[in-house]
Amino acid sequence: MPKPVIGILGAGKVGTVLGRLFVAAGYRVIIAGSREASRIALTVEVLVPGAEVGTSEEVARKAEVVILALPLGKYLTIPRDALRGKLVLDAMNYWWEIDGFRDDLSDPRVSTSELVQAYLPESRVLKAFNHMGYHDLDEGPRPAGAPGRKALGIAGDDAADLETTAALVDAVGFDPVTVGTLRDSINLEPGSALFGANFERQAVRDAVTAFPETERGLLVAAARADSPWVGGAA
After folding, report:
1. So where does this one cross the membrane (predicted)?
2. Fewer CB within 10 Å, N- or C-terminus of the chain?
């Protein structure tokens, strides 16, 4: 089966590391940054040799799978129309230092990937590649079955898309672990035990099981019980 073209929106640390991983795994990769394509061409040539550059619109249009690796606070700038019908992997996290203090991005009633899905109603959004630090992503890939292979949690609502995403995670050198639905992906966000973790598969599963009893898990459960998020596109 042909490998899908991977598009990456975001040419920062996470975006360039993921670009290198997918190029090394034999995928065609196209990257867009916040600047004009010509202004990131040298950066991509040095940091992601073998990848192509394009505008956000071009990446969204040409790629079959698009990874969001830009600051979460910019998610409303994502080319929504060009992503219609595409599988979109949300690797973004809320950082107040970058995004500013945003009640909408820190609301425990809703995962940030649900916000992205609400903005991209005609795309299929999954959470992936967000909870491990970029250094560990860069240095961690190992072949399937290798001792000490690290694991990445993924979350989504569609079984087929989860299977596709799991295959991509495996292809770049990590064990995929499904942690639940897009709503459950809040257990991959900052504040959870998995965020920043560099765990093997069973430890990821154990952290998912333990999440409801953690301080963050209890806060999320209480907020959702008191006033459920009703959602809606921006």
Report:
1. none
2. N
Q: Helices 37-47 and 13-24: crossing angle, nearest 10°?
A: 60
Domains of the chain: 6-226 (3.40.50.720)
DSSP class per residue in 61-73 = HH-SEEEE-S-GG
Q: Indicate if the pLDDT at residue 233 is higher than 70.
A: no
To which residue do tokens 């996470």 refer? 14
Task: Look up residue 64 and give its two tokens.
Answer: 């079959």
HSE value, Cβ hemisphere, 13 Å, CA-based, for 49: 1
Query: Which of these, 179, 176, 180, 157, lies nearest to 168 by C-alpha position?
Result: 176
pLDDT classification of 234: cutoffs 50, 70, 90: very low
**79 in Cβ contact with 20 (< 8 Å):** no
Q: What's the pLDDT score for residue 112?
A: 97
pTM above 0.90, yes or no: yes
Name the token pair of 184: 């459950």
Both structure tokens of 8: 């990456």
| The residue to which tokens 């040539």 are assigned | 45
Backbone phi, psi, residue 173, to 5°: 110, 20
d(CA 121, CA 38): 31
Alpha helix segments (H runs only) across 55-158: 56-62, 96-99, 112-119, 134-139
